[in-house]
Amino acid sequence: MNLNCVSISLGSSKRDKFVTIDLPNNYTVNIFRIGVDGDILVAEKIIQKLQDEEVDAIGLGGIDLILYIDNQEFVVQDAKRLYDKSTKIPVVDGSISKKILESQIVGNLIQKELLRNKVLLLSSLDRFEILKVLVNSNFQVLIGDLVFALNVGKLIKNIEELKFFASFLLDDVLNLPFNFIYPIGKEQEKNNELSAELSKVIQEEDIGSIIGDFHYLKKMSHLLMGKIVVTNTLTQEDIEALRRKGVKRLITTGIFIDNRSFGANITDAIFAAYCRRIKKLKISPFGFEDRSLFFEFLHDFLGLREIKGNVVFEVK
């Protein structure tokens, strides 16, 4: 049986890719990544056109649909526009994998002592479960949402402080055009490093590990020497660039094929296709809590026996 998954990304079309994954029990997954160079109108048209194609699930890349604090969901309005354009095909954004898969991977990395204290979490609202795992494991965590999304020179030091800032900033931020808080399209191809002021905020901390989105990570590429990095959505060129920047250990959390790490939205899309075609279920990222179904997908469909990150390279 063939499952067809399409990732519509607001990122650069230069990162487009098609891959096929052969899985146990004669299942094949075809993954198409289509970048629209930041043009949301083009993304809308593609999603509408796909409704009449043999597509089992759509992943939204380069944009978050749902952000979290505890169990409260916050919706990014630009992404909701895209989500609403799909009337037949399930649409996911990576939030399921981030909540369930990535948090477990980070927990396993902690158990195996593959992370160093203290940890810079580049953004927490899309990876709140990871934040909780780190805090519950007594890691000191620096939260980078203000620095990387809003260019504000302050690292948040704990969950209560995060909730304080979110209480009066988040509603406005969710209604901003997404490119105001995250690099999309051709901005992803530029080397837009943090300003000297923002860099100083990070340099003042003795950071051992960095976790988060690669396009935020690129902003601090001049500060990666000797760091352990956990990230995703990497091409071979990205991997080599991180090696040149002196990263000590690079770990990815997504599907790794042909020297490329795909984003969480693609893992979610494969999961949605599995649910639709094999389990006869249409899932939604909103309010999703069925961890047993997700782990069944990981174990029985993908054939993963151990939930662990992929160590791409390590400098001894």
Model description:
36% of the residues lie in helices and 21% in strands. With 316 residues, the chain is α/β, with parallel strands linked by helices. The protein folds into two domains: 2-94 and 260-306, Rossmann fold (3-Layer(aba) Sandwich); 97-256, Rossmann fold (3-Layer(aba) Sandwich). The strands form four sheets. A six-stranded mixed β-sheet has the order 9-8-10-11-12-15, sandwiched between helices. Helix 8 (214-217) links the parallel strand 10 and strand 11. It is globular, with a radius of gyration of 18 Å. The model has no long low-confidence stretch (mean pLDDT 94).
Which terms summarize this structure?
15 strands; 316 residues; Rossmann fold; alpha/beta; 36% helix; 5-stranded mixed β-sheet; 2 domains; globular; 11 helices
> What string gives the helices and strands in order?
EEEHEEEHEHEHEHHHEHEHEEEHHE
Measured between the Cα atoms of the first and last residue, the distance is 43 Å
- Amount of helix: 25-40%
Question: How many separate domains?
Answer: 2
The overall pLDDT average reads 94
* CATH class category label of the largest domain: Alpha Beta
Number of strands: 15
Concise description?
With 316 residues, this protein is an alpha/beta fold. It has helices at residues 40-50, 77-84, 95-111, 128-136, 145-150, 159-174, 196-203, 214-217, 236-244, 264-277, 291-301, and strands at 2-9, 17-23, 27-35, 57-61, 66-69, 72-75, 91-92, 119-121, 141-143, 209-211, 228-231, 249-252, 256-257, 260-261, 310-314. The strands form four sheets. The chain has a six-stranded mixed sheet, sandwiched between helices. It has a five-stranded mixed sheet with strand order 2-3-1-4-7, with helices on both faces.
